[in-house]
Model the fold of this input.
Amino acid sequence: MNSFVYDIPTKVYFGENQLGHLGEELSKYGKKVLMTYGGGSIKKSGLYDKVVAEIKKAGLELFELSGIEPNPRVSSVNAGAKICKEEGIDVLLAVGGGSVIDCTKYIGAAAFYDGDAWDILEQKTDVTKCLPVLDILTLAATGSEMDYGGVISNPETKDKIGLMFPVMQPKVSFLDPTLTYTVSQYQTACGSSDMLSHIIEVYFNMNKDLYMLDTVMEGLMKTIIRYTPIAMKEPDNYEARANLMWASSWAINGFVNGGKQQAWSCHPIEHEVSAIYDITHGLGLAILTPRWMEYCLDETTVSKYYQFGCNVFGLEPKMEPMEVAKKSIELLSDFLYNTLGLKSTFTELGIDDKNFEIMAEKSVEIGGLKYAFKALTKEDVVKIFEMCK
Ligand code: NZQ
Ligand code: ZN
Done:
């Protein structure tokens, strides 16, 4: 097992009625606030008015950037950075899902860079400074509220790139489960598929690691499997929304990683698919993950699937390990496609094999897939894509 550093410096206000602390937290970083948000869900839900009232009450000066897209574009990062430079913004407040928070992190970084923000994603420049980012999360999914990563798309080059810079870690996150009551069934399902994948990417690892962390991950996966159908059926079930929201943060905030060095598999592959087809991230992962599991299953990896099948899906430990492994993939597929109702093939999304080669090549190269759970070549990824047709 590798040594590691544990450092998750985001202050979290969890639960209802915590927005009263917003003014005091923002004020720690200055007077001029740039509030960023997406396509309007926060106006519909009434959250926008509440946030603006808190900012005004604290005597802060408010600037806004709206219209941040799902799969946020670099053009939005540039637009936000321009406002920061022209207005001398002190602090950023992202109100929305992972796309808004990710975009805002890069706005904070690009505010200190004279040039196109895409240079940051292409790693032509390092990120050593970022304006302070605070957020109010409205969708349980990416964990962006408690990590220092972010993913940005460039429709011109058909790239979608995710990087991590410690200075982009949110200073404060407001996690109020009631703000997710308005999330649609579809986005709830996609969010949970994303969270599950964040855990699976780390859990499926053949190194001897901390039993304690494996047990935590199994608990997180069971939590997601238990509460997502409830949240979909009863959107205002506080217990379900609260469990999903906190699971979203802990799935990817670095805690369960415990020093694991292994590259992720499905995420780099999915990012190439959504770079070209602009699909919802969690949906792409739902289609890919069971096929990737099937592809990587063999005598050398079966013990991990056995652990997963027994501890997450409660399969009988007396069964043959290979039988448990195959059954666990079946049960995961059943959960994603039948219980959550997500589409199960690329064909249903209008994705054919035209771009399989290029998507496979880029995911292997950018994602470092030769260091993944099972080392994958371009040919392997094309075969996984074929299984998704
Ligand atoms: O734009 P608005 O109007 O706000 O609507 C959004 C959007 O249409 C809507 N929504 C959000 N909260 C809502 C709501 N609708 C009703 N009620 C609410 N309370 O949901 C739609 C999707 O939002 P988005 O932010 O795009 O979803 P998500 O949180 O899943 O973020 C996806 C992005 O995050 C990246 C993905 O690649 C994708 O670009 N990721 C970021 C990660 C990170 N920072 O660590 C890790 C992930 O693996 C992921 O790659
Ligand atoms: Zn993800």
Summary: The radius of gyration is 20 Å. Strands lie at 11-14, 32-37, 61-65, 91-96, 133-137, 149-154, 159-164, 172-175. The longest strand covers residues 32-37.
